Amino acid sequence: PPPPALRTCTFSSPAMALQWMMLGMVASAEALIALLLTVPYPSPLRRRVVDAVASILQPAMGIVPFAIFQLLDIYWKNDHRMKCSSDICTVLERDRYERSVFKAQRNALLSVGACLLYWLLFRLCKFYRDIQKLEDDAKRLKED
């Protein structure tokens, strides 16, 4: 059996890996949608794309509290993680400790990135809608 120090360590379960995979997929989808929004389109097509993305944004807001919860989970695990900084740690324990720290840093960046990408999509949609409103006002003033 493994030494007692290794038995008390908490490592990611398959359910946790599924949560991070889902967060990664959502962040990837957000990045692709952001690229889709920044491609130059003719005005009528851009309006449809912006309207479609804006309709997706409200249900996708659920990713922000989920990512914040994941960040809190990382913070809690970091506070309660066994430190392996003394000479009594074996090479295997030190390796596991370093891998868990790197994994936590990667997951924290993923959570922050998902929140930032959501905010970027929201601001891009608002920006394009403001431009559309100004174009419509300018067209209306030209006609008068």
Nutshell version of this structure?
This protein is 83% helix and 0% strand.
Kindly describe this structure:
There is one protein chain. It contains five helices and no strands. It is mainly α and 144 residues long. Helix 4 runs antiparallel to helix 5.
The overall pLDDT average reads 86
Helix content: over 70%
In the predicted model, the low-confidence regions spanning at least 5 consecutive residues are: 4-10
Strand tally is 0
Silhouette: rod-shaped
Q: Which structural class do the helices and strands define?
A: mainly alpha
What fraction of the residues are assigned to beta strands by DSSP?
A: under 5%
Radius of gyration: 23 Å
Alpha-carbon distance between the two ends: 85 Å
- Helical run tally: 5
Largest sheet: none
The topology string of helices and strands comes to HHHHH
For the structure shown, list the relevant keywords.
144 residues; mainly alpha
Topology of helices and strands:
Elements: H1 4-8, H2 14-38, H3 43-60, H4 63-80, H5 91-143
Helix pairs in contact: 2-5, 3-5, 4-5
